[in-house]
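I am writing to request your help with a piece of structural work I have in hand. The matter concerns a single protein, recorded as an amino acid sequence and a row of backbone structure tokens. Could you please explain, in whatever detail you think fit, how the structure tokens follow from the sequence? Thank you for your consideration; the sequence and its tokens are set out here:
>
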Amino acid sequence: MAGVTDGKFCSKMAKYGFDLVTLGGYNAEHESIEAGLRIINRGRNEFHVDEKELFQHISNEARYIKVQNHNNVDVSVNLRVKTANPVITISKIPELDVVEINAHCRQPELVESGYGQALMNDTEHLYEMICDIIKNCQKKVSVKIRANVPGVNHIDIAKAVNDAGAHYLHVDAMKPGVNSADYSVIRSIKKKVDIFIIGNNSIRDLRSARNMVLSGADGISIARAAIHGDLSFDLSLI
């Protein structure tokens, strides 16, 4: 959803009953910004914000959501980083409620530069980065990961996120070649951690949303089903 979830989009979706809306993903370091430009050059929509302007940009977008929704929805921002400092800095934006570490993106340009799902290749570094952010951050912290990445043990990653003290584990339960979420991933993680789990992937109707919750997710996130700026089912019925 990069290049789509700006303040106007999030504000519009908040009216459907979401407790939390997420801005981003934003490239928050020089290397990830450069990688983002390479992605844009091959024709994919991405946010491109200069590093010096990023704090004010996110602040403006978050404030817009809060004003439009009378402070009735929490605001998160998804950040592509591999060090703690940008997250700590951005967490100081008053209108933000949650900062989310992107250990999820699979775009080759970002992964090759050590961002997105590449963070899951070094559990110790991810753990230490989360600990640093938790220690110095003024907001709740979420970590978004991707399931079924070759060579990555999702249980080890989930435990690291949990033990580091993050507030949310956001799981894209993707399984390549399958047109539905891999609910077994959610079930297996739920057995090993105490953290609040947000389940994501292929939630397009009440049935898929309920399946995610029944698999152990404490909450759900929706992307593709909302890409046109509306939602075809009632969240209150989940």
Remarks:
- The beta strands are 20-27, 74-80, 98-103, 140-146, 168-172, 196-200, 219-221.
- DSSP finds nine helices and seven strands in the chain.
- The chain has one domain: 7-231.
- The longest strand covers residues 20-27.
